[in-house]
Write a structure and sequence with these properties.
two-stranded antiparallel sheet; about 70% strand; about 325 residues; 15-stranded antiparallel beta sheet; globular; mainly beta
């Protein structure tokens, strides 16, 4: 979300119309008053769309609306309190599958979704100890329909809290961070008379430590270690290491190694779409490793050159798997 101008008010608006009966509207207001900053935005976008199936059937369009509000309060120097909220809702039409033949057809399928999210944070710095506390909540809902008949619906919630504390000396910076995240997933399926109804939950707790050090004017290192504790998977530990060497003025050599993981989504695990898709609750996280080496030359305000090579490996990638016998798909970790 953009920041408001200091000591003033800024208003922005946009109106647009084009082919396929497409239109877009948006507005934004930004202001500061004393120690308070406010930013409000809203938008609307729609189109009648096209017929992607045959070009001669019904047109599949979409309608999308969003709004957001941010408020920041800075009571004294070194302290910031803020909150930001977002709301998104929309409807999209598409061509699905014939429920009898399971073949792709010019159907009247549509999906409706709503997402609401709010995040609150507090930043502070006292005696050389900068820190941050934050919490967020997100809720989403999705409904799938065939014409006016409901097929299924899903909803989810995510609540997270986190904290970060740093300590910096002349040449060293140590950062400690912790996070807890809880997620809930709910599915109801009218098309199969409740056969795919389900309620799921999972939790994640993580701890991070990072150490950045300047050993010499020409050598800086950065090390980080993260441990994730999952309620639905095996725990995982990942690391990152990097170094910057400056052999000459304006010339730097950067090298590093990094590891990462990504959880499967609730839809990957438990999603369901009648006749076409079923999730896989046996999925595990994706895992990656990367090495990189780069050279950077800073020629001043007008010119800079950067050359970098890297090698990355992705393991246990989450992929879609299609069964031609049943015309259904699911997800799996790639071997």
């Amino acid at each position: 979300t953009r920041s408001a101008p200091v000591g003033g008010v800024s208003l922005n608006g946009l109106a647009e119309y084009g082919s396929l009966d497409s239109s877009r509207l948006s507005a934004q207001a930004l202001t500061t008053a004393g120690n308070v900053e406010l930013v409000a935005t809203s938008g609307w976008m729609r189109s009648e769309g096209i017929d992607s199936f045959s070009g001669r059937g019904d047109r599949d369009g979409f309608d999308h609306r969003n709004a957001s509000l941010k408020a920041v309060y800075r009571p004294t120097e070194g302290i910031e309190l803020g909150t930001v909220a977002h709301w998104v809702e929309g409807e999209s039409e598409f061509d699905g599958f014939d429920p009898v033949t399971f073949r792709h057809a010019d159907t009247l399928d549509s999906t409706r979704n709503r997402i609401g999210a709010v995040r609150t944070w507090a930043e502070f710095e006292r005696g050389g100890w900068p820190g941050r506390l934050e919490g967020s909540f997100l809720a989403s809902a999705n409904r799938n329909l065939l014409a006016t008949e409901p097929l299924n619906r899903t909803s989810g919630r995510r609540f997270s809290v986190g904290a970060q504390l740093s300590r910096e000396t002349d040449r060293h910076l140590v950062t400690l961070a912790a996070e807890h995240q809880g997620e809930d997933f709910r599915a109801r399926d009218q098309a199969s008379f409740g056969a795919a109804d389900q309620d799921r939950s999972r939790d994640l707790a993580a701890a991070v430590v990072q150490w950045r050090a300047e050993w010499f004017p020409w050598l800086t290192t950065d090390l980080a270690l993260r441990h994730d504790s999952f309620s639905a998977f095996d725990d995982a530990t990942s690391a990152r290491a990097g170094a910057t060497v400056t052999p000459a003025e304006r010339l730097s050599v950067i090298a590093g190694y990094g590891e990462g993981i990504a959880q499967p989504t609730f839809y990957d695990l438990f999603g369901f779409f009648p006749g076409t898709f079923k999730g896989n609750p046996g999925l595990g996280p994706e895992r990656s490793r990367e090495w990189y080496l780069g050279v950077r030359w800073d020629g001043g305000s007008r010119l800079g050159l950067w050359l970098q090579g890297f090698s990355g490996t992705l393991r246990e990638e989450i992929i879609d798997v299609f069964d031609p016998a049943t015309f259904r798909s699911t997800t799996a970790n790639a071997p």
